[in-house]
Amino acid sequence: MSPFHFDSLVWHWPIAIYLFLAGISAGAICFAVLLKHFKLGKNAYKSSFVQAACLLAPLAVFGGLGILVIDLTKPFDFWKILVFYNPTSIMSVGVAVLMIYQVALFSWLACVFKEPISNWCDHRWTVIDKVLNILARYESTITGLLVMLALSLGAYTGFLLSALTTYPMLNNPVLPILFLVSGISSGAAGTLLGGLLLKGNPDGKEVHFIHKIEIPLILFELVLLFTFFIGLIISGGQSQVAAFTAIGEGFWGWIFWAGIIVIGLTLPLAFNLFMTVSAKRKLSYVAITASCSLLGVLLLRNFILYTGQMTVA
């Protein structure tokens, strides 16, 4: 059986990229919110890492939606999904969450960058000033709504695959939590890499803060992966077959053990622990750790998507 072409395959790699980008967006904006409220306050917009997260969140969503539209057999009919909602369709519910998420996202970005936007406009457009003042007045509500929508979006990437009920590995209640946690982890990695590209300080308080959260996130992700596969193996039948097909010998077995467990989780955990006890964080360590995390999450999305469709109930 080819790892990328087999009879039961329905969804290909563009779906994995879409799920990856949606997770990054949700994770990045969560870290932007955390950095603003726990470390930086009103000056958050000056931080390279917050700027990176605020750029990454909308760009990742647009990129993911673009890939999804191109992947449709009738891309010019995509607008129908945005207009005609079916509350019983997980795809339709996901698009609704994405739409509301983008409204909350841009409203929050306007609150964070209120001062530079006002300075740039130089009070030439009173309408913009009025809108910014209204949004700033409700910033707390917008922030709460945005975090809830971001977490929903992160979990939705797992629910979307869980809806494929004929595949025992995908129809798994652990999958939405696993994708949510790995999405937040990829958001942290994307924020760190983007912040470094924008010349942020690799030993800055933002990096220390993100790394403190990353360590328990990676440990929790390992526990979730263990629970995911142990649950399949204990269930027996086709669930057990699906688990051993995925993590056994062959191409996807190597991707799981070498790519996801070693490169994507173990190395970032080891680097994070090393940087925690060392006196100073270096750019190379932070960049390598973040790159390994991003690669691991990308491989995880593809691994789950492809191996999950290899075994039918």
TrEMBL record:
It holds the Pfam family NrfD. It comes from the Bacteria. It is a multi-pass membrane protein. GO terms for molecular function: nitrite reductase (cytochrome, ammonia-forming) activity. The chain crosses the membrane at residues 15-35, 47-70, 90-113, 134-157, 177-198, 218-239, 251-271, 283-304. Keywords: Cell membrane, Membrane, Oxidoreductase, Transmembrane, Transmembrane helix. InterPro entries: Electron_transfer_protein (IPR052049), NrfD (IPR017566), NrfD-like (IPR005614). It is found in: Cell membrane. Its EC number is 1.7.2.2. The keyword Transmembrane applies. Belongs to the NrfD family. This is Cytochrome c nitrite reductase subunit NrfD. It comes from Shewanella eurypsychrophilus. The gene is nrfD.
